[in-house]
Design goal:
15 helices, mainly alpha, disordered N terminus, about 350 residues, about 0% strand, single chain
C-alpha cells in the first residue's frame, strides 16, 4: 500500500509539473488581449463539435466494453461499461506511459464479481482493438501525411517509426500471451523462481510454488476466456468498428479546433492523419498524458496551419483531449468508490 501511495504521489507530481509547464508556456507566449481575440473568433458550432468528438470517443469505448463483456460471458449494463471506461481513462491519464488504466479496470471489474482472468481478457481485448485501430490509422496517416512532416524535419521519421513499432509490438505481445499460454506460464514461472532467490524471500524461507500455481492458473483462465470470446466474432467485429470510430473521433479534435477558428483550406484527412502520427510519436514519452511531448509535437507540426491562433489552439485542443478526460474520469472514480462503500456497509 505504501508503494502504491508513492506511485500515486509521483503521478500527481508529474501531472502537476506538466500542467504548470503548459501554463508557464501559455503565459509567456500570450497576453490577455490575444486570448480574448482568439476566443472571440471561435465558432460555436465547431466548438460544440470538439466536445461532441470527445463524447463520441467516450461512448464508443463504453460500447466496446459492453460488446466484449457479452462475448466473454460477463455482460455488463451500459452504466457499468461507462464506469469501467472512464476509470481506465482517468488512471491512464494520470500515470506515466498510461500504465495505470488497465490494472484499475481489472480491479473495478473484479469488484463487480468478474473473475480476474476473465476481466483481464476483456481489458486486453479492448486494448488490442484500440491498438489495431490506432496502428491501422497511423499506417494510413504515414502514407498520406508522412511526407509533409518529413519535409518539415527529417527527425520526425525515426520518432514516428519508433512509436509505430512500440504499439505494434505491444499488440503482438498481448495477442501472443493469449494464444500461447504455455510459453507465458513458463516465462512467468522462471521470473517467479528468480525473484524468490533474492534475500528477502530466502530469509523468510518463502517457497515459490504457491505463487507459481496462482500465476499458471491465471494464465490458463486468461487463455480460456480469450478463446471463448474469439468464438463471438460478430461482436468482436462490431467492437473493432467502434474502435475505429472512437480513434477517428479523438484524432478529429485537432481538425475541429482548426475549423473552430474559421480557418479552412487544409482537408480533414491531412490534419487528422497528422494528429494520429503525432499521437503515435508522443505516446512513447513516459510522462502522464505524454505531457510536454504532446504539446511540443502539436506546436511544431501545426504551426504553419494555425498562424496567430497556434498557442490558443494548442491549449483548447489539450484541454479537450486530455484535461477534460481527467475531470470526467475523476468524477467516475469518486462515484465508484462511494458505490463500493455503500455496498460494503449494506
Amino acid at each position: 500500500m505504501k508503494h502504491d501511495k508513492k506511485k500515486q504521489w509521483l503521478s500527481i507530481g508529474l501531472l502537476t509539473l506538466g500542467a504548470a509547464a503548459l501554463a508557464v508556456f501559455a503565459a509567456a507566449t500570450l497576453d490577455a488581449g490575444d486570448v480574448r481575440t482568439s476566443l472571440a473568433a471561435l465558432l460555436p458550432g465547431w466548438t460544440a463539435a470538439i466536445v461532441g468528438c470527445m463524447l463520441l470517443y467516450y461512448l464508443c469505448d463504453a460500447l466496446k466494453y459492453r460488446l466484449i463483456t457479452r462475448a466473454f460471458g460477463c455482460a455488463q449494463p451500459l452504466g457499468d461499461s461507462i464506469d469501467v471506461s472512464m476509470v481506465g481513462f482517468f488512471y491512464s491519464a494520470v500515470t506515466p506511459a498510461a500504465a495505470g488504466g488497465q490494472p484499475f479496470q481489472v480491479l473495478h471489474m473484479h469488484h463487480r464479481g468478474i473473475p480476474t482472468g476473465t476481466a483481464t481478457s476483456v481489458i486486453c481485448t479492448t486494448y488490442c482493438l484500440w491498438n489495431v485501430a490506432l496502428v491501422t490509422l497511423s499506417i494510413v496517416g504515414f502514407c498520406l501525411c508522412g511526407g509533409t512532416l518529413a519535409a518539415q524535419s527529417a527527425a520526425w521519421i525515426p520518432v514516428l517509426v519508433l512509436g509505430l513499432l512500440v504499439h505494434a509490438g505491444l499488440l503482438a505481445l498481448v495477442l501472443l500471451s493469449a494464444i500461447f499460454p504455455k510459453p507465458m506460464s513458463a516465462f512467468g514461472t522462471a521470473c517467479i523462481r528468480q525473484l524468490y532467490r533474492r534475500k528477502p524471500f530466502v530469509r523468510r524461507g518463502a517457497e515459490p510454488e504457491a505463487a507459481i500455481g496462482k500465476w499458471c492458473a491465471f494464465v490458463a483462465e486468461y487463455h480460456e476466456a480469450f478463446a471463448a470470446g474469439m468464438q463471438h466474432r460478430g461482436k468482436l467485429i462490431g467492437a473493432l468498428a467502434l474502435a475505429l470510430v472512437q480513434c477517428t473521433a479523438y484524432m478529429s479534435v485537432a481538425y475541429c479546433t482548426y475549423r473552430g477558428f474559421g480557418l479552412r483550406g487544409v482537408p480533414f484527412w491531412q490534419i487528422t492523419g497528422t494528429q494520429v502520427l503525432l499521437y503515435i510519436g508522443a505516446s512513447c514519452f513516459p510522462m502522464p498524458g505524454a505531457s510536454g511531448a504532446s504539446e511540443g509535437t502539436f506546436y511544431l507540426a501545426f504551426s504553419p496551419l494555425f498562424g496567430d491562433y497556434l498557442t490558443t489552439a494548442m491549449l483548447i485542443w489539450r484541454l479537450a483531449s486530455y484535461y477534460l478526460t481527467i475531470v470526467l474520469g475523476y468524477i467516475a472514480v469518486v462515484v465508484e468508490r462511494v458505490a463500493l462503500r455503500r455496498a460494503e456497509t449494506q
